[in-house]
Design a protein that fits this description.
Elements: H1 2-11, H2 17-29, H3 38-51, E1 60-68, H4 83-87, H5 89-94, H6 98-106, E2 109-116, E3 126-128, H7 146-165, E4 168-176, H8 181-192, H9 196-199, H10 208-225, H11 232-239, H12 242-256, E5 261-263, H13 266-278, E6 286-288, H14 297-304, H15 320-338, H16 342-345
Parallel strand pairs: 1-2, 1-4, 2-3, 4-5, 5-6
Helix pairs in contact: 1-7, 1-12, 2-3, 3-15, 6-15, 7-11, 7-12, 8-10, 8-11, 8-13, 11-13, 12-13, 13-14
The protein binds alpha-ribazole-5'-phosphate (RBZ) and nicotinic acid.
């Protein structure tokens, strides 16, 4: 499994600078004032760099949802019962959960993976790649062993690779796992050193008493496990989650094939922190779809150096924000391909001498 991770990291290159400058040059000639399509232009240049062509196209889109359970729910850190992680799975497959509806809405394939759900899963349509039946309670000990973390990363790499083989040219990440905002906060604190007051939020909308308990639990998980921020795998194994590890693999596996990765909210952000820790170059392949209402997401994105596309007050996870942002990514590609330049349109050029140039 370590080999799979090492291979994926080794394959992740830099952005294609030549494709980026050609895309930028075309954007500057298109029938519009310079830079007037704003962030769509930035996105277009990034996509050109990721996909290695000045005219990138998105053909097939998929959302990968990794599901896993968390021993730390025994501490009373979520307003939702643990069984929901299991019970919601058929609604993913049938398309009646939040991401079920939104993935269908944007025309993306939905891939649901059990990488660590507590109960045995046998719903047809769910890919069962269970590494273990839920993590250990991070308030008392490690979430999982290093080997299990590597195995779950391997599952993610394999799933992403398979989706790319089937034709995916844009992959969105999603999470399902009751309790998973707690390990995500622990990961954020471990990497940034931020105090739990800054990294712990309300998750499924817990009240003040639970929020306070959650802060103590995260602080305790760090004190008990002493994750080493210079060793991302150590952080993941000690205070992470199985679905978070799976998502680390999806991110690395997609980037290894030069496929852009849309992050969702707080949990996929925690996975991104680990992935970037393991392979800093992967950052350039990431697109932050939205700013979650989970308060600490802003710290996460700042640490990752990513600017969210949407600010929609979402706090569901499942990949819902990432799915909603897919049409923006497609729009950025279409601008490059389908818009005409001033000269192609035979339209009078702008007054160069009157333009503000940086
Ligand atoms: C019905 C339901 C559907 C969800 N879909 C995603 N989450 C989200 O909420 C959970 C994280 O919040 P916490 O750490 O407070 O438990 C995760 O399952 C996450 O995916 C859901 C939560 C619920 C209740
Ligand atoms: O930002 C998220 O992804 C999120 C926030 C709260 C609960 N579940 C997910």
């Amino acid at each position: 499994m370590e080999k799979l991770l090492a291979e994926a990291c080794a394959r992740i290159g830099d952005l294609d600078k030549e494709a980026m400058s050609r895309a930028q040059a075309r954007l500057d000639q298109l029938l519009k004032p310079p830079g007037s399509l704003g962030r769509l232009e930035e996105l277009a240049v990034q996509l050109a760099g990721i996909m290695g062509t000045p005219a990138p196209t998105i053909k097939d889109k998929c959302v990968v949802v990794m599901a896993g359970d968390h021993g730390v729910v025994a501490e009373g850190v979520s307003a939702a019962p643990q069984e929901i992680t299991y019970q919601i799975l058929p609604h993913f497959v049938r398309g009646t959960s939040g991401i079920g509806v939104l993935a269908r809405h944007v025309g993306a394939r939905l891939v649901v993976v059990d990488v660590g759900v507590a109960r045995p899963v046998s719903f047809s349509g769910v890919l069962v790649r269970k590494v273990r039946a839920g993590t250990g309670n991070i308030a008392r000990g490690p979430a999982m062993s290093r080997e299990e973390a590597l195995q779950a990363i391997g599952v993610g790499i394999e799933v992403a690779t398979e989706e790319v083989r089937k034709g995916a040219s844009l992959i969105a990440t999603g999470d399902m796992g009751i309790g998973n905002t707690t390990p995500s906060s622990a990961i954020l604190s471990a990497f940034t050193g931020l105090p739990v007051e800054e990294t712990v939020g309300r998750g499924t909308l817990v009240n003040d008493a639970v929020l306070e308990r959650k802060r103590k639990v995260v602080a305790q998980s760090l004190a008990v496990n002493r994750p080493d921020p210079s060793d991302p795998l150590d952080v993941l194994a000690k205070v992470g989650g199985l679905e978070i590890a799976g998502l680390v693999g999806v991110i690395l596996g997609a980037a290894a094939h030069r496929v852009p990765v849309l992050l969702d909210g707080f949990i996929t952000g925690a996975a991104a922190l680990v992935a970037v820790g393991l392979c800093p170059r992967v950052r350039q392949f990431l697109i932050a779809s939205h700013l979650s209402q989970e308060k600490a997401h802003q710290h996460m994105l700042r640490h990752l150096g990513l600017k969210p596309l949407l600010d929609f007050d979402l706090r569901l996870g499942e990949g819902t924000g990432a799915a909603l942002a897919m049409p923006l990514v497609e729009a950025a590609c279409k601008i490059l391909k389908e818009m005409v330049t001033f000269s192609e349109a035979q339209v009078a050029a702008m007054h160069e001498d009157m333009l503000l140039r940086p």
